[in-house]
Glycosyltransferase (Hassallia byssoidea VB512170), 423 residues
Amino acid sequence: MAHIGLICPAMTGHLNTMLPLGRELQIRGHQVTLFGLLDNQRSTLAAGLNFQAIGESEFPAGAMTQLEAEQGKLVGSAALQYCISWLRKLAITFLEETPQALKQAGVDALLVDQVSPEGGTIAEYLNIPFATVCSGLILNRDKSVPPYGTLWSYSPNWWAPMRNRVAHIYYDFLERSIWEAIFKYRRKWNLPFYSSYDDYFSPLVQLSQQPAEFEFPRTTLPKWFHFTGPYHNSSGRKSVSFPYEKLTGQPLIYASLGTVMGHLVEIFKTIAEAVDGLDAQLVISLGGATSSQPLPELSGSPLVVEYAPQLELLQKTALTITHAGMNTTLECLSHGVPMVAIPICNDQPGVATRIAWTGSGEFVPVSQLSVPKLRTAIKRVLTENSYKKNATRLQQAIRQAGGINRAADIIEQMIFTKKPVFA
């Protein structure tokens, strides 16, 4: 059996992907250790996995909570640039400290989150196989696919590739500080320079928790790219109580902006006003967010909780209003629940456009958010059968994709053969 290391950001959406995958591999007899910030420790140990701290001085306990709180105050490109600044700092810390920690632990293979680009360089330096795991939207470049942070849908028109290329150049400019840091260490370790953006992904296995049906048409994915479907389960998640006795039996609308954006009071206020008057009960989860701005009394007196047991609540949900985080989106689709998305930052716009493209919901850009627009979208998705039908279609696609068992099979094949595992 192998000793498998995990590298991923100390962010709930990424941990909710990586920890269940690590747990499945541990059940199969492998030793699994997450190498991460102290803010990863509680969730990792709760999932029953080993934990090794990285960057204790640069990122003491609570550092990521503070960073998420600061990012949550921003939207659009400002939020993205803030995210990139601390991803650079995180990359430098991992490049400096993780190789020695992996050597001492005797790690045989790595699973690297796609938004931890330093992980591939670390694996190359140590000459150990690694798999890329896409917790969020697929970041692989394709001239026909719009960049992750845009609200552009897929278009077969001749001008679309040029539009996409210009946007990719812009994102390269924003992310240049991360790549400069990584290239510094590649020079130091006598590793070849990347010739293209996709070179930092694994040359052996790339895994996406999207089903193929929830992705725009692509032509350039490598043969070792696998659409496996999501890995979510309760591993590493807090046990959350919920006042089920307060549910009225009306169609349930569940609203969550994740764990980073949950303090955006004005958005929750708009959601409550948009739902007020509909034959439905609104449940709002704040995702544990705290804010100096108290939550006002909301229209329609929705049921508001700090946390919600999301996987359980989705079994009762008719419609989810979401920020279009990938994990929440796939959890909704796994339960056949259509959505109205309010994308705010990072890859959420790209996820929202796929929700609309697949017909499993609608989206309202945060810059255009208003009570009338949101109410119109909610009423449309609640009353037109096509949205539920398409969400159910994607639910079936997820069930057939193989999920965590298929992903673990692929990883094991990579470890044992040290060769690309073709889809």
